[in-house]
Amino acid sequence: MVHLSADEKSAINAVWSKVNIENDGHDALTRLLVVFPWTQRYFSSFGNLSNVAAISGNAKVRAHGKKVLSAVDESIHHLDDIKKKKKKKKKKK
């Protein structure tokens, strides 16, 4: 396991505080699907991903981007006990 110093944790939190989970998650996933179109095969259930407008306007793309960054957010807020937090989530499922 990686042990982070107080300065490292502070830097991570400072950078992360600038992230807008919903918008940045949507933008990141949209960029992935546009720049690397072959990745669209993993998101076939999302419907029309045929062009930039379709991808950026897709509600499932927005929701999934938010879901991914929410998971990162959860981990960042539990830097001292990520493994423990992960185990608790698995038990809930």
UniProtKB/TrEMBL annotation:
Tell me the GO BP annotations in alphabetical order: hydrogen peroxide catabolic process
Which GO cellular component does the record give, naming just one?
Answer: blood microparticle
Keywords, comma-separated and alphabetical: Heme, Iron, Metal-binding, Oxygen transport, Transport
Pfam family membership, one: Globin
Lineage, highest ranks first: Eukaryota, Metazoa, Chordata, Craniata, Vertebrata
**Organism of origin:** Xenopus laevis
Q: Name one GO molecular function term.
A: organic acid binding
TM ranges: none
Does the entry feature the keyword Ribosomal protein, yes or no? no
Give the InterPro entries listed for this entry: Globin, Globin-like_sf, Globin/Proto, Hemoglobin_b, Hemoglobin_oxygen_transport
Domain of life here?
Eukaryota
Name the protein family: Belongs to the globin family.
Name the UniProt record assigns to this protein: Hbb protein
Outline the extent of the Globin domain. Answer: 3-93
